[in-house]
Design goal:
Number of domains: 3
Strand content: 5-15%
CATH architecture of the largest domain: Alpha-Beta Barrel
Structural class: alpha/beta
Number of strands: 15
Bound molecules: beta-D-glucopyranuronic acid
Strand order of the largest sheet: 6-7-8-9-10-11-12-13
CATH class of the largest domain: Alpha Beta
CATH topology of the largest domain: TIM Barrel
Radius of gyration: 26 Å
Helix content: 25-40%
Low-confidence stretches: 12-20
Shape: globular
Mean pLDDT: 95
Number of helices: 21
């Protein structure tokens, strides 16, 4: 009996340690090693490179298919990082014009193996990525904190670098390469001048050395005032020769340390950051000065269009107003980086009109992978549908171009196309602080690679690789993921509402927020404009005229309350509470039903996940369940807060067939979240 008990204990311990291995750290790369049987080799005439060595190693370790795999770099193979995979009777070949392309081909083969979509004999596929630069932007600070980061501290251990190289850097590079990401901005757009100090640059160079073999180029965010703040010059006027010389010398110093350095990301004259306007110059003057310094080395400038001044009557109009007059004035190695919507990564925004408007400037979309405005690392919100809505949106430029098409064109000799996402990565064991949030990192890479991929396919691939291919898990959880964005929008900000978050941390609802002395455009009332007449921001031709920044027919479509898509109704219109919407219900009733449906569906997510217990390791299942339960509670918090608050203006009752609020408005108003970034540990502090 005792022996039996011992055996049982041993078995239980083994199981436990196996379960413990499922801490999410392996991301979607949970392939099992083969038994050493894979025959992988470089093709005739293809010499070894560090990148090809990785491709060979990955396949040698994990490929379980029949026959040999031949990797070949051929000048006539697909270029721009593309590849062709072909299956013949004796095996598979991976061909590309570059080692990077071969590496992407190798990861594609492994993905097919993991998702059960292997090539059959005689079949070949060629893939060419949608964008040249497929870029992650880290908002990581030199002190190890991460702006809007919800997965722990920065993965970059600046204090240990360059002497110590954390093994996480290579794991990070590998994960990125496996989904096609080839560019990384290491630091926050709110950049510290010290980032360009010789000391920091040596650290940057050590990271770049780890990323390089994986085909990833390193970029830095720079502070436009660096010549003054770091270089000791009297100013940073881009027209001053000494400023230009300072940048040229700094750029040369960087390229000595990082020969394949990618370039600079710049947030200028935005939210207090210095910029060319401080010296009476334009964004183009500033961007071009940096572009000229980078051009001899092959670098590019990513110049952000995220600008708004407190004095503007409509923040949504500003990027267009500042940048459109400069269309065509940027050097061809400048890309204007535009957030997906005209305001700021809100739960749902129409696409930024700049995508359709700028015809002679290389423009790139910027998405937010980190969920600053979507429940941070607690709520599950799969973002591929949000990004697809932007990329697939028709801008009507020149008769017809989607956002994806408009941004994938290359306009000049040195132009490159690009797409960026603000990373959700930190030093958390599972990288993103929530196992399902890994799906957003994954989806971002996959969409940069192919904007035509469907969100459902991406979710499917992710779940099969990251959890299990068991359909009893994949089908319901994929459905949950595909619903999750719409559900979150419904319980947070439906029908075009936006920016009614709690001040500062942006986690919970605070439509009443009014911080004395603060900028009006940082207050929710600026956006929701609730009064006894109605709700929403009038951006029609009678209002702020933001609709006129879109090409026809959109301008008319959005501008007319009767044709405006209802998901953007309160974005573009101030709508009477009694306005009858397409389903025959008033605006107020629609708000009540939509908030409630969102909250009920969020509760359904928790129930669904509870039922997934047999298919997920205990650790990830329990951790996610806590988050789903918190999300469900938050959804009711959002619903109650917004309905109770808006009811004061609507002066109508919540329809009798809907549940009464669980909270009282006064209690919710008194409740203060005193933390900056939520983690699972804070979950119980919420109402
Ligand atoms: C806002 C964030 C802020 C960022 C800013 C930006 O709240 O932390 O610095 O965007 O993108 O959404 O520059």
């Amino acid at each position: 009996m005792d022996a039996m008990r011992c055996l049982f204990m041993l078995w239980a311990l083994c199981c436990l340690s196996l379960l413990r291995a499922e801490d999410g750290s392996r991301l979607w790369l949970r392939m099992e090693r083969n038994a050493g049987e894979a025959d992988v080799r470089l093709g005739h005439g293809t010499g070894r490179t560090p990148t090809l060595d990785i491709a060979v190693r990955e396949l040698a370790d994990y490929w379980r298919g029949d026959g040999r795999v031949v990797l070949q770099v051929l000048p006539e193979g697909p270029d721009r990082d593309g590849f062709t995979l072909s299956r013949r009777s004796d095996g598979v070949s991976v061909v590309s014009a570059s080692p990077q392309g071969v590496l992407y081909g190798a990861y594609a083969l492994l993905r097919m193996q993991q998702t059960g979509t292997d090539l059959h004999e005689g079949q070949s596929v060629t893939e060419i990525p949608s964008y040249d630069l497929r870029m992650l932007d880290h908002w990581d600070n030199p002190d190890g904190t991460v702006e809007r980061g919800y997965a722990g501290r920065s993965i970059w251990r600046w204090d240990e670098l360059p002497e110590q190289i954390s093994p996480r850097y290579e794991a990070y590079a590998r994960a990125n390469a496996s989904i096609g990401i080839n560019a990384v901005v290491l630091n926050n757009v709110n950049a510290k001048p010290a980032m360009l100090s010789p000391d920091m640059l040596r650290k940057v160079s050590a990271i770049a050395d780890v990323l390089r073999p994986y085909g990833i180029r390193t970029f830095l965010s720079v502070n436009f005032g660096s010549p003054k703040a770091l270089g000791g010059l009297p100013g940073a006027d881009p027209m001053e020769p000494e400023v230009q010389e300072w940048w040229a010398a700094k750029v040369a110093e960087i390229y000595r340390l990082v020969p394949d350095f990618g370039g600079f990301l710049v947030k200028a004259n935005s939210e207090g950051q210095p910029g060319p306007q401080d010296y009476g110059r334009t964004h183009a003057d500033g961007a071009n000065m940096l572009a000229d310094a980078l051009a001899p080395h092959g670098g590019v400038v990513l110049w952000r269009a995220f600008v708004y001044a407190a004095s503007s009557p409509d923040r949504a109009c500003q990027a267009y107003e500042e940048f459109m007059p400069l269309d065509g004035k940027f050097r061809d190695n400048v890309i204007v980086q535009v957030k997906n919507g005209p305001i700021d990564f809100q739960p749902r925004e129409p696409f930024s009109p700049l995508f359709g408007a700028m015809k002679s400037t290389q423009v790139m979309p910027e998405f937010q992978i980190t969920q600053e405005y979507l429940g941070q690392s607690i709520h599950t919100v799969f973002l591929a549908p949000q990004w697809k809505a932007c990329l697939d949106a028709e801008t009507y430029q020149d008769g017809g171009l989607t956002v994806a098409e408009a941004t994938q064109r290359r306009l000049g000799r040195r132009s490159v196309s690009a797409m960026a996402g603000v990373s959700n990565i930190g030093d958390a064991e599972d990288w993103t602080g929530n196992s399902l949030a890994q799906a957003n990192w994954y989806a971002f890479g996959r969409l940069c690679w192919d904007t035509g991929l469907e969100a459902s396919r991406i979710a499917d691939e992710f779940l099969k690789q990251t959890f299990t291919a068991d359909e009893r898990f994949v089908l319901p959880v994929r459905q949950l993921m595909l619903r999750s964005w719409d559900v979150a929008v419904s319980y947070m900000m439906p029908l075009g509402l936006h920016h009614i978050f709690a001040f500062g941390h942006h986690y919970g609802p605070e439509p009443w927020c009014d911080v004395p002395g603060s900028r009006p455009d940082w207050m929710p009332a600026y956006y929701h404009r609730a009064d006894t007449a109605g709700l929403g921001f009038d951006r029609s031709a009678r209002g702020s005229k933001a609709v006129m920044q879109y090409h026809e027919p959109l301008s008319t479509l959005y501008g007319d309350i009767r044709t405006c898509p209802e998901e953007y109704l309160l974005w573009f219109h101030h709508v009477p509470w009694g306005y009858v919407m397409r389903n025959g219900l008033t605006l107020w009733d629609n708000l009540c039903y939509t908030y409630t449906r969102g909250a009920e569906e969020a509760r359904g997510f928790a129930d669904l996940w509870r039922g997934m217990r047999p298919y997920v390791d205990a650790e990830r299942h329990a951790d996610m369940l806590r988050r789903f339960e918190r999300q469900a509670k938050d959804a009711w918090w959002w619903r109650d807060a917004c309905l109770l608050y808006f009811r004061q203006y609507a002066r109508r009752d919540i329809p009798a067939d809907l549940p009464s609020p669980e909270h009282r408005l006064d209690d919710l108003k008194r409740f203060r979240l005193d933390i900056d970034n939520y983690t699972a540990a804070d979950m119980d502090k919420l109402p």
